[in-house]
């Protein structure tokens, strides 16, 4: 019974600790939602912050609901503990007679043992005297065997009676103890079931919030965001006026020309977006403002030809995956791997940097680095020779908040220098020109040295601290790069999609193969999901492995566990589905797939600190899917 009371208390303590964790998490999510409302409300992306804010607030509410449920459960546990204590006290009173029976048999056992020893001693003495030839009178006078025999016999009878009473009392008491323990375990299981049900309900609510978030993002098109921006700015409503008006407009900072050519990107335009929306915008000079001017060439929208869905043109495909060029004769329908579906990468890790108190006393200042890469690929059916791949990456440095005081208090802080390794695998490197300098004359093609403009870095960190004074660290975008690709050998997951469309049925097959050689080092592809839209009025679906059919969106979803070469078939497999249609045939459509890998990159690029004054406290690596195109092929089962 004692252990039962202990287990009840420990369970209450466990649930109470879970309440503390959930409450802290809910408050943190509420705080995060508030920060989302404070982010920039300018530009086309601004409306999406409302989606983030509402979703985060709902998540915070879900966890706070769990807090209230668990607090109620703690009260039930406490009530049970009080009832348990009363039941134990009553039971102890009821079994007090059993304690007397135990004490009685223990005492009787001792007396019986002494009586037995006395009887044995007198019997031996009597036998010895007989052998020595003593008379009967002497024997009766010297040894009182008869009395010892009678005493021993009486104690045997008393012991037998005590034993019967002891066994009866112990049996009754043991049954009561067993009933108490059974009741205790059953009650504890009921509490645990309530605990599990509360968590399960919360997980369902969180799943609904996430589903709503994904739907909101999917339903927010690029066109609607641009339309909202145009409406908010009042642009695009009227055609430009006479020559006088046009002469006036020539002095504006941005010109837009309607043209039939697709747009291209250059390094200065690449970084102008970040200079216009990031930390260096406040320190730009007029000369830099002039360099930030850029032309946007827009291809007019072609009329709809009346088909079930728009055909992707060559230019649209090129715009989707950057500067990848396709054969003029190639017309495709495509699979898109959206990085927007993947979890955002935060440079937090396990190290948030030392406090300002301890930083000043250390010989070297800690910094952290993160490499985040995105893979974009184009597959043409099952032909590996026609796979085109584009891989881009970002390098971010993170500084603890305490480092700002050291930088500002020192007239000339130590210059932060680093060496980028495996640069021979990089096709292009675009450093942050406001913060980073490099020696382009280096002879070693596999490394490249960089050093930071410490005054500009200090200014940026100080401005970040003023904007978010409670943050324990600040991230700085250092450089971007593009990785040299080797076709299909550079993709971590090779794909081929086949459609067979008939009036009453549609068959879809997605073949995939894990490619460890594309990663440095090889790692598992996590959270792999394949989303296949199927038109034609699907009435039923048969799939292998099992997929989830969403009738409202007309999409089937496969969720796969981590894909690695350690799995059966070394990470290769197929997804198959057969759809019964009421309004066929289906039209092969865009497939959405997502996955990510932690602790690995596709380029193998890395960095080392050069010189003294700093140390690397954390090095995080990650890659995820960007956009991947795939031309479908017909097949016969």
TrEMBL record:
Lineage summary: Eukaryota, Metazoa, Chordata, Craniata, Vertebrata
Region: Disordered; residue ranges are: 231-260
Tell me what gene encodes this: FCHO2
What range(s) does the MHD domain occupy?
364-637
Per the record, membrane topology reads: Peripheral membrane protein
Q: Does the keyword Iron-sulfur apply?
A: no
- List, as start-end ranges, the regions of compositional bias called Basic residues: 249-260
Bias (Basic and acidic residues): 231-240
Localization per Swiss-Prot or TrEMBL = Membrane, Clathrin-coated pit
An annotated GO BP: synaptic vesicle endocytosis
Where does the F-BAR domain start and stop, copy by copy?
A: 1-225
Q: Write the protein's name.
A: F-BAR domain only protein 2
> Per the record's keyword annotation, is Nucleotide-binding included, yes or no?
no
Key words, A-Z: Coated pit, Coiled coil, Endocytosis, Membrane, Phosphoprotein
Coiled-coil intervals in this record? 63-132
GO CC term (a single one): plasma membrane
């Amino acid at each position: 019974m004692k252990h039962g009371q202990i287990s009840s208390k420990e369970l209450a303590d466990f649930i109470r600790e879970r309440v503390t964790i959930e409450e802290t998490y809910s408050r943190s999510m509420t705080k995060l939602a508030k920060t989302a409302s404070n982010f920039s409300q300018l530009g086309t992306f601004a409306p999406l912050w409302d989606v983030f804010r509402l979703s985060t607030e709902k998540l915070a509410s879900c966890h706070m609901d769990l807090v209230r449920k668990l607090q109620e459960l703690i009260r039930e546990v406490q009530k049970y503990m009080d009832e348990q204590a009363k039941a134990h006290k009553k039971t102890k009173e009821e079994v007090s007679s059993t304690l007397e029976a135990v004490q009685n048999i223990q005492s009787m056992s001792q007396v019986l043992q002494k009586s037995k020893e006395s009887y044995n001693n007198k019997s031996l003495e009597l036998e010895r005297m007989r052998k020595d030839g003593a008379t009967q009178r002497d024997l009766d006078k010297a040894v009182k065997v008869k009395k010892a025999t009678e005493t021993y016999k009486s104690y045997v009878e008393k012991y037998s009676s005590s034993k019967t009473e002891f066994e009866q009392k112990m049996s009754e008491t043991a049954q009561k103890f067993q009933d108490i323990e059974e009741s205790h375990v059953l009650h504890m299981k009921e509490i645990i079931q309530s605990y599990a049900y509360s968590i399960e309900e919360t997980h369902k609510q969180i799943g609904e919030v996430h589903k709503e978030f994904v739907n909101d993002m999917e339903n927010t098109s690029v066109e609607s965001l641009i339309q909202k921006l145009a409406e908010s700015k009042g642009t695009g409503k009227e055609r430009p006026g006479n020559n006088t008006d046009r002469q006036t407009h020539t002095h504006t900072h941005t010109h837009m020309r309607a043209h039939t050519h697709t747009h291209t990107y250059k390094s200065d335009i690449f970084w102008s977006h970040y200079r216009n929306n990031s930390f260096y915008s406040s320190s730009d000079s007029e000369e830099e403002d002039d360099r930030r001017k850029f032309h946007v060439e827009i291809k007019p929208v072609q009329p709809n030809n009346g088909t079930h869905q728009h055909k992707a043109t060559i230019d649209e495909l090129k715009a989707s995956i950057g500067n990848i060029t396709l054969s003029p004769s190639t017309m495709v329908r495509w699979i898109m791997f959206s990085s927007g579906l993947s979890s955002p990468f935060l440079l937090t890790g396990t190290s948030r940097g030392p406090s300002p108190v301890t930083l000043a006393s250390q010989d070297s200042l800690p910094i952290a680095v993160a490499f985040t890469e995105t893979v974009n690929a184009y597959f043409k059916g099952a032909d590996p020779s026609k796979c085109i791949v584009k891989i881009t990456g970002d390098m971010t440095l993170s500084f603890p908040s305490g480092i700002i005081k050291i930088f500002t208090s020192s007239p000339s802080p130590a210059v932060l220098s680093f060496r980028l390794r495996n640069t021979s695998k990089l096709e292009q490197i675009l450093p942050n020109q406001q913060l980073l300098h490099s020696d382009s004359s280096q002879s070693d093609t596999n490394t490249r040295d960089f050093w930071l403009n410490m005054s500009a870095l200090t200014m940026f960190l100080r401005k970040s601290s003023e904007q978010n004074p409670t943050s324990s660290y600040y991230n700085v975008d250092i450089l971007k790069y593009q990785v040299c690709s080797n076709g299909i050998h550079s993709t971590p997951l090779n794909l081929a999609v086949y459609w067979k469309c008939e009036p009453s049925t549609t068959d879809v097959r997605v073949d995939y193969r894990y490619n460890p050689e594309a990663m440095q080092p090889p790692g598992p592809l996590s959270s792999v999901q394949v989303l296949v839209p199927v038109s034609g009025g699907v009435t039923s679906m048969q799939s292998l492995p099992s997929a989830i059919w969403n009738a409202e969106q007309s999409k089937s979803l496969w969720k796969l566990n981590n894909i690695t070469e350690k799995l059966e078939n070394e990470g290769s497999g197929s997804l198959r589905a057969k759809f019964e249609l009421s309004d066929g045939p289906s039209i092969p459509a865009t497939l959405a797939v997502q996955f990510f890998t932690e602790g690995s990159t596709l380029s193998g690029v890395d960095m080392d600190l050069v010189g003294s004054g700093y140390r690397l406290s954390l090095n995080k690596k990650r890659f995820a899917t960007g956009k991947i195109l795939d031309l479908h092929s017909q097949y016969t089962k």
